[in-house]
Amino acid sequence: MIQGTLSRSALALLVALWLAEAMRTGRVEAPRTEADRSLWLWLGFGILTLVLAIIRKPEWALSMALMGGEGVVYVVLNALMLFHAYLYLLRTEKDRDRAIGLFFWVGVVAAVYGILQSSGVEPIWPRAINPFGGRAVSTFGNPNFLAAYLAVA
Q: Distance between CA 84 and CA 129 in Å, rounded?
């Protein structure tokens, strides 16, 4: 729950920075990439299959529209807007170097926290959290997420 709140807050801040820059300059700049067509096709296919599912099972139309609509919003925010906001805000080499440094230091903090958890020290939660057989979760909530981040960072 905390991770989701933090990630959505960071996304909102990132999009707000992007929009503030757009208001300051008077135009919205969205970098064009080779991935744009694929992302839009993916979103379009998702919407098409949602509409077809609603037509085929009209008795479930409300629940499919609510859940599918949530999925569409998720894809737009997390795939399209976040991707383009990152590209826009990381235009210069200096910005990219800062982002790489930030990813590295987040990995260091997460790894240290995971090592503490593995040693039986839980600095944040009032009691030890052990839903994954003693594997460290750090702040990621799942040892697989921690491992994936550390592998990339």
A: 36
pLDDT 10s digits, 106-116: 899 989 988 88
> Whole-model pTM?
0.56
Measured distance CA(120)–CA(136) in Å, rounded: 10
Distance CA 102, CA 108 (A): 10
Query: How far apart are the C-alpha atoms of 148 and 114, rounded to whole Å?
Result: 13
Nearest to 39 by CA among 7, 13, 78, 65: 78
Task: Answer yes or no: are the C-beta atoms of 113 and 139 closer than 8 Å.
Answer: yes
CA distance 3 to 146: 12
Q: How far apart are CA 129 and CA 117, in angstroms?
A: 9
Which amino acid type is present at position 130? N
The phi and psi torsions of 142 (rounded to 5 degrees) equal: -155, 130
